[in-house]
Amino acid sequence: MKSIELTDYGVPEQVAGCVEVPDVGPPAEHEVVFDVLAFPINPADIWFCKGEYRVRPPLPATPGAECVGRVSAVGAGVSHLRPGDLVINLQRENWAQRRRVRGEDVIAVPAAIDLGQAAMLRINPPTAALLLQDIVELRPGDWVLQNAANSAVGRLLIRLARRRGLRTVNVVRRQALAGELVALGADACVVDGPDLAAGVRAATGGAAIRLGIDAVGGAATGRIGACVADGGAVCCYGSMTGQDPVVARGDLIFRGITLSGFMLGRSLARRSLDEIRAIYAELAQQVLSGELHAPVARIYSIDEIRAALAHAQQGERSGKILVVPNGTLPARGGA
Ligand SMILES: NC(=O)c1ccc[n+]([C@@H]2O[C@H](COP(=O)([O-])OP(=O)(O)OC[C@H]3O[C@@H](n4cnc5c(N)ncnc54)[C@H](OP(=O)(O)O)[C@@H]3O)[C@@H](O)[C@H]2O)c1
Questions:
Q1: Is the pLDDT at 335 greater than 60, yes or no?
Q2: pLDDT per residue over 291-305, tens digit each?
Q3: Domain residues for 216?
């Protein structure tokens, strides 16, 4: 079977290759085997290939934080899954044609779900949902500010916020995106720049913003900090610039804003397996109904991994890059 292997850490499209490896074999008692139908290339996968992610396993290593798969075999001790079920995997190393994992690490998703969207269900939808839940207690009518608003997380957050009656002011780096994000449910859209605070004030009528969400890092975090109300919170959950957040000490000391970080794994680790399954069940239903959706720019085969990785690092993409390890991707899972 084919798998993606990193022979070194470095420029992703140079260090990643599609190689032939031994098949995974049959499942043990508490294991399942599934065919990987699709996986996305997320910013964290790019950091992983570069050797700059929080996990940096010995080489050769297989990347891949998420995927959707179809179960082909289950061990005798696995009762919650059957061959044919669609699943997402809570564990890593998913850039391969087939996976053999512990049964408790996979979660079944509805058979009729859009497979491309299911491939992206594991990370970004719960990230967007829990950013709105775990940092600040928000009430209907509250404003939330976020940058990188055109990202998959950003777009999902707009939808989830709207559903909860929250209002979003969305920071982008291209004015051309405003119409699209407003159509999605954004209440306001502002282009980032030195005077972001004035733009945000104008867009929100000077509303007191209690939560600012940052995925850009560097000085951009500080600009989010300058927009939140006294005593408000800035939460950094990513850094598309690769820079550490820089926040004005006056905002921290005199205005009492707080700066914290969010990582999905930490948020999920505080919850029981039943709670985690409930989160995914609810999000999967919203994907199934079309309420939650992340645009896809292009789908590549597993042999084209290097082109896919290069594409995933381009700015101004029209959506995510997906890879299909086992041939073409039917739109839906079936049934
Ligand atoms: N902490 C966690 O648990 C967690 C979980 C999921 C995701 N994340 C993080 O969330 C962020 C978004 O992930 P995603 O999968 O939603 O991303 P994505 O869909 O691939 O989109 C990336 C976004 O970043 C913007 N961008 C790229 N370079 C930028 C720069 N130098 N300055 C400003 N904006 C820039 C792009 O803007 P354009 O549209 O203008 O090109 C695009 O909107 C990433 O940093 C990721 O690591 C964190």
A1: no
A2: 999 999 999 999 999
A3: 124-265
Residues 26 and 110 both lie in one domain: yes
Please identify, by atom number, the ligand 1 atom nearest to the C-alpha of residue 155: 16
Does residue 286 form part of some domain?
A: no
Q: Measure 28 CA to ligand 1 centroid, in angstroms.
A: 38
The pTM of this model reads: 0.97
Do 261 and 316 have their domain in common? no
Other C-beta atoms closer than 10 Å to the C-beta of 278 total 12
Q: Cβ(75)–Cβ(32) under 8 Å?
A: yes
Q: Do the bridges between strand 320-324 and strand 31-40 make them parallel or antiparallel, or are there none, so unpaired?
A: antiparallel
Does 252 lie in the same domain as 130? yes
Per DSSP, the residues of 155-197 read HHHHHHHHHTT-EEEEEES-GGGHHHHHHHT-SEEEE-STTHH
Task: Tell me if residue 299 falls in helix, strand or coil.
Answer: strand
Residue 333 has pLDDT above 90, yes or no: no
**144 Cα–ligand 1 center, Å:** 17
| CA 215 to centroid of ligand 1, rounded, Å | 6
Number of domains within the chain: 2
- Here the CATH number for the domain that contains residue 217 is 3.40.50.720
Read off the pLDDT of residues 50-72 as tens digits, 9 standing for 90 and up: 999 999 999 999 999 999 999 99
Residue 287 lies in a domain: no
List the residue whose alpha carbon is closest to atom 18 of ligand 1: 151
The answer to whether position 171 is within a domain reads yes
By the 8 A CB rule, do 140 and 161 touch? no
- Known catalytic membership, residue 300: no
